[in-house]
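# step 3/5: fold
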Amino acid sequence: MRDLTRYSGLGVQFAATVGLFAFVGNWLDGHWNSGPWLLITGVFLGFGLGLYSMIEKLPSSARASRRNGTEDDRHSSKNDPEPPR
């Protein structure tokens, strides 16, 4: 259940980031009468920053699940042979 909460929170954060940058871009377009260009830039910038934030947070959650022993045994390092010395 904690994983569901964590990952749904990442999705909400991603959507909020894109929405916020789109809103600011749309507001600046109306303020400066620049057409849809700042809206489009805001959407792409929000998408990129939201994706970067999501990628930064996903590996740390995977490391935490490995530390807590909740990782699936198929992907566990216990099943991997020891490297030759």
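# step 4/5: annotate
The mean pLDDT is 83.
# step 5/5: archive (pending)
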